[in-house]
Specification:
79 residues, little secondary structure, two-stranded antiparallel ribbon, 4 strands, 10% strand
Length: 79
């Protein structure tokens, strides 16, 4: 028998919203080189806003305003 136990992971989103760490158009090789407000490493090798979740480093997701944030918690219901 397998027992499923929910795991809750929390973090301070403020750490990914550090202002001024990476100016727009900074050189990059992947998402780890960029931070909000320009979290995505574009095809030209410069930091810019994200367009899709794939632009963000996992587990972050892209918002409509082009920043990467933690996804909302998912609640799994056990029956």
């Amino acid at each position: 028998m397998t027992r499923r136990v929910p795991i809750v992971v929390s973090g301070d989103e403020a750490i990914i919203m550090i202002a001024g760490c990476q100016p727009p158009d900074s050189a990059c090789t992947d998402c780890h080189d960029c931070v909000n407000p320009t979290p995505a490493c574009g095809p030209g090798g410069t930091c810019g806003p994200c367009n899709t979740d794939k632009d963000c480093c996992p587990p972050l997701v892209c918002t409509p305003n082009g920043t990467c944030v933690l996804p909302p918690p998912q609640i799994e219901r056990f029956s």
